[in-house]
Amino acid sequence: MRASPLAYWIVLPLLVAVWSIAAWWIDSSLLPSPLAVFQTLQSAAVSGELQRHLAITLQRVAISFALAMALGTLIGLCMGRSPLTNALLDPLLVLLLNLPALVVIILLYVWFGLIEVAAVMAVVINKIPNVAVTMREGARSLDLRLEQMASVYRFSAWQRLTHVWMPQLFPYLMAATRGGLALIWKIVLVVELLGRSDGIGFQLHMAFQVFDVASLLAYSLAFIAVVQLIELTVLQPMERRASRWRSVGGGRHA
Amino acid sequence: MLDLRIVADAHPVLGAIETSVNEGDRICLLGPSGIGKTTLLNLIAGLDASQAAMDQRILKPLRIGYLFQEHRLLPWRTLRQNLMLVGVRAPDVTEILSRVGLEGCADLLPDQLSLGMARRAALARCLAVDPDLLLLDEPFASLDPDRAEELQSLIAALLDARPAMAMICVTHEMRDAHRLANRVWYLDGRPARLQYDAPLNRDDGDAARLVAGLRRLGRSCRLG
Where in this chain does the entry annotate a coiled-coil region (chain A) (predicted)? Predict the structure, then answer.
């Protein structure tokens, strides 16, 4: 459960206050005041730079997220349903899960060059194993009793998918989505930092080169704001909608 | 016209079984707990995973209504949606639910119903497919005596309205058998076989005596 929203209205202003005092005390460009950061943010927004880089980053996030979810779900469901597929792919999965994200990124850039496809592929490959593991759990948890019911009453493949499987897989899909976004946000920035010439990651890289802490913080804050916006406007309503049936009765299964 | 031959051999739980179910058969399936009564029902319903190990000859277009021990309605779909998923047309939902005494419940979710109501809703789904064969797995278990009596009358009435439909009902109460069945199967042994398969006599007495008698019978001459 989330903490009370009231806490946000106490803790966040407090944080800003502490930050202001610290910035005033230290009086260095290495710790700009909240006001300075806000001004940087504003000028980046006015010039359109902020929106441009944010849009490019969001686009990369969206594409790699969609690809990773689709492929990871497919692989995970196959592994959960078929012991043979699981036996074949499990070692690969363990390998990929333990391979540092940075290694995948560097290898793909080295092999394919500093191109967009390599960047997106690096993110996708980093994310697929997590999605697959979560969806494999989901596939294994499918209620056999409802499968039998669907067989007796001759459900079509489509009916099975939409009415029997999806509601059961939904919590796993949501878990994969949340974990997925959190991970992909971060990896996309690294990918941009290492090999792209646009996007938030690239801007952070530029700021790092000249120790421009104000820009660093400005871009981070803008980024956090967008992520939270997506969380509040897309993910949470989706979750509420799909789990409405759970709130009735005891949530007793089958 | 239903003429169902059930032949199983080399099944992991069930022994050699060979019998048939005909139109209008109302079979009461008795036997000790855990002997494989539900396994046999699943086999007949075509749900058995060990298909390779048996020879099951069933007329293909057989329509089956299966009342499982649990209601097995989709908990995230309303009764209306659950019924429509097995092919009920929207205007017929109310009528089908009213047949089992669930008027006005079409838009409830299964978990909003009591156990007895959920079982009746599941029964409504069984009948909605207009089955040739109705399988009931302990339909009266864990209901209080009044609810059980109510459901029994309901099933008896539904059976009377469909003379051609065959039924196989797992139960432990001879009272249920006398009311609903005209034939008895007794499943026992390791591996389990049909030790007894005969028309039901009115003077077979209560379940305990019948089962004890059947068990002696099974031990002495290995019927089936």
Answer: none
